[in-house]
Amino acid sequence: MNSAVRRGLIGVALLLAATACSDDARETTPPSPSATSASPGQQTMSPGAPSTPPDTSSPASDRSTPMDIRVTLDGRPVDATLNDSPAAGDFAELLPLTLDLEDFHGTERIADLPRELNTAGAPEPTAARVGDIAYYAPWGNLALFYQDGPAPSADLLILGHLDVSADQLGRADRITIEAAS
User: Which ranges are annotated Low complexity under compositional bias (predicted)?
Assistant: First the structure.
């Protein structure tokens, strides 16, 4: 059994155990490694695709200077930025990426990254908000939140923000992320 499937089964078992023992599973259950293998690759976007800073009403985006990136969800461009955390900088080194997304917990779309990110110097934890791009360090998952996430955790690092509706993000099957020119 490959390690991703094994990790997924362990994560589902932990999720079920935590849900059975908790009144509020969202606060006690971390994101799962149930994503399928990521498919790193490139996809060309039309030059000059718009990139603007995220909605500043999100606390996750207030804490740093944004770095523009180009993102497409299912072939449609969306505005997005990365924050200036060390983990976001390390994530930018992986670009371009094309990843297949899976739903997790009715809250986020997740995918495995090709390698772990450097989490040294991470900012104080904050709870994920709709549109946040995050990294769940224990399993190396990229998480795109289409519902507000769990309570703040040192294991969940906010990398940036997508300016997209919760509905569009919740239905997304594929994301392509590139460095802005």
Answer: 34-66
18: its two tokens: 């935590």
pLDDT in tens, 92-140: 999 999 999 999 999 999 999 999 999 999 999 999 999 999 999 999 9
Quick one: tokens of 105? Answer: 């917990």
Instruction: Report the length, in residues, of the chain.
Output: 181
Q: What is the DSSP letter of 10?
A: H
* DSSP string covering 28-65: H-PPP--PPPP-----PPPTT----PPPTTSHHHHTS-
pLDDT, mean over the chain: 76
- Alpha carbon distance 80, 77 (integer Å): 9
DSSP symbol at 148: -
